[in-house]
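W.,

You were right to be curious about this one. When I first looked at the sequence I had no strong expectations either way, so I just let the prediction run and decided to look at it fresh. Below is the sequence, 90 residues in total, followed by the output.
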Amino acid sequence: MTGMEPLASGGTNYDAIIIPIGILVVIGAVVAVIVASYFRLQGHRADAVAMANYRKLAEDAVANQQELRDQLTKLTEKVQAVEQLMRDVG
């Protein structure tokens, strides 16, 4: 008289075991997908930061290259002036 109905077959109620296990499997799969997505997002963020640094480096390189070209042009003009002076003197 415990208030529980006896099983008709006298065996184990497999539905009472399968349903909680199924729920736990689904919850575990969802947690695994969330964790994997989080780490993938962190990887993409790190890649974005690295690409931003490379972009900044490329912009700096272009600016420095333009500055060097300007200095090389001025130096070439001065060398040409010195060569012309040497031709005029000698």
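Here's what jumped out at me. Residues 15-89 form the longest helix (75 residues). And, maybe more interesting for your project: The radius of gyration is 39 Å.

Coffee later to discuss?

I.
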